[in-house]
Every structure is written in structure tokens, then in C-alpha cells.
């Protein structure tokens, strides 16, 4: 998959100051390096900083949270260790308000609700299973959702996760509502999307700036992909 050079294509950068670098991550790009050895967002961002500020050595980039590889949307990176430790605190204490948009193949019923599951991750298969009852090995996961409306032959669902568990939105929509996310064959959708992404987009992040304490809100435009075209009407 062709991936943008963040230091030459400015459209991916939503905000930058001395402490934060906010990126609209394309689907298909890792946030942090893994066993594949593929270049992650963190390395591309570091290279962008080195290039922009003509740094002779490494630039600092801290990762406080992640998006799954096939997911697009807003990612907050720290440019200083102080900002990183405070961002980590905000995420840990659930003081970051996260909004996602998802496309599903059928309308969730009911159209608005709250889901609670206990999630158990299988690290070998890289999948997560959701249980409706308390599980001894499970982590409690909560989210709120509401159907924004129909988008072509799909349904646009707004999701506000209260916790931040691996694959949480993907498995909770599939297990709790029987509405897997478009393209997410791992959690029950019948066919992949042509670009092997899934129709899940981190639309918005709201939090108090870790250094200035200013209220911040970052909104990531939807990917310019055919499956998201009809959802543009909900801007």
C-alpha cells in the first residue's frame, strides 16, 4: 500500500506545537513498530521532525495510544517526554473523549445504546473475544453508540469508547449487536475492502492540553475512499 510521506504531504498533520503532533493516520499504517518490521507512523513522524527542524540526531516522538493497523483517524503523538507522561496519564484516567465513526452492513438495533463486555485477548491469533458476563481473565470494556443514519447501502454509527481495550469497538459491535464493521473479516464481515482497511475511523479526540491545559479538540477528515463517500454528508 502506498503510504504518504508525512513530512511532504501536510494534509496528514492536523496540529503541531512544541509539545504535540496530531496526525490523521491513513489505514494500513502501524502506529508503532511490530514484528513485521514495517515502518510505523512513529518512525515517519520522527523523520518528519528531523527534516523540518534540521535535527542532526534523533527527534523525540512518544506514543500514548494506538489505532489498529487497518483503522484510520486521529492519533496524538508527544514531542517531549513531559507531554508524553501527561498524555499517558490522561488516557489512563479516561480523561480523553474519543469519537469513532464506523460503517456497518445492517442497522444496529436498538439505534442508541451502551455495551458492556469482558474482553479476553488471544495473542497468538491476535483476536479478542467478548463475554457478556464477568470473565476471570477478561478486561471490562464499555462504549456508547448511536446510529447517525444511512450512508449509501451501509449504516453510519458513532461510537464513544469509555475504555480503551484491544479491538474493543470491532468485537463489541460484532458480538453485542451482530453488526460487524464493513471489511472486518476478522470479526465476522463477509468480505474485505479492496484496500484491506476496515470502515472504522477515529473521528475526534478531545482532551486538556498536557502542558498548556487548554481544551483541545481534533477532528480527522474521513479517508478519500469510495466506501466512505456517502458518509461525507454527515459532516
UniProtKB/TrEMBL annotation:
Superkingdom to which the source organism belongs: Bacteria
Gene3D superfamilies noted in UniProt: Pseudouridine synthase (3.30.2350.10)
Coiled coil: none
Keyword Nucleus annotated: no
GO aspect biological process, one term: RNA processing
Gene Ontology molecular-function annotations: catalytic activity, acting on RNA; pseudouridine synthase activity; RNA binding
Keywords, sorted A to Z: Isomerase
Domain spans labelled Pseudouridine synthase RsuA/RluA-like: 19-174
UniProt xrefs under Pfam families: PseudoU_synth_2
Keyword Ribosomal protein: no
Family membership: Belongs to the pseudouridine synthase RluA family.
Protein's name in the database: RluA family pseudouridine synthase
Amino acid at each position: 500500500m502506498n503510504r504518504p510521506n508525512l513530512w511532504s504531504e501536510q494534509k496528514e498533520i492536523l496540529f503541531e506545537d512544541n509539545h504535540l503532533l496530531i496526525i490523521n493516520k491513513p489505514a494500513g499504517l502501524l502506529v508503532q513498530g511490530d514484528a513485521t518490521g514495517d515502518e510505523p507512523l512513529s518512525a515517519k513522524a520522527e523523520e518528519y521532525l528531523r527534516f523540518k527542524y534540521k535535527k542532526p540526531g534523533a527527534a523525540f516522538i512518544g506514543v500514548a495510544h494506538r489505532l489498529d493497523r487497518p483503522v484510520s483517524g486521529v492519533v496524538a503523538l508527544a514531542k517531549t517526554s513531559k507531554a508524553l507522561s501527561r498524555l499517558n496519564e490522561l488516557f489512563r484516567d479516561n480523561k480523553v473523549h474519543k469519537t469513532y465513526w464506523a460503517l456497518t452492513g445492517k442497522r444496529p438495533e436498538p439505534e442508541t445504546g451502551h455495551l458492556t463486555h469482558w474482553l479476553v485477548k488471544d495473542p497468538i491469533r491476535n483476536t479478542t473475544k467478548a463475554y457478556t458476563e464477568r470473565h476471570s481473565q477478561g478486561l471490562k470494556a464499555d462504549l456508547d453508540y448511536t446510529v447517525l443514519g444511512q450512508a449509501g447501502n451501509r449504516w453510519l454509527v458513532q461510537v464513544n469508547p469509555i475504555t480503551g481495550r484491544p479491538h474493543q469497538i470491532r468485537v463489541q459491535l460484532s458480538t453485542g449487536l451482530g453488526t460487524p464493521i464493513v471489511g472486518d473479516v476478522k470479526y465476522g464481515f463477509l468480505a474485505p475492502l479492496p484496500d484491506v482497511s476496515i470502515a472504522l475511523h477515529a473521528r475526534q479526540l478531545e482532551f486538556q492540553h498536557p502542558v498548556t491545559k487548554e481544551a483541545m479538540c481534533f477532528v480527522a477528515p474521513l479517508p478519500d475512499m469510495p466506501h466512505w463517500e456517502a458518509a461525507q454528508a454527515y459532516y
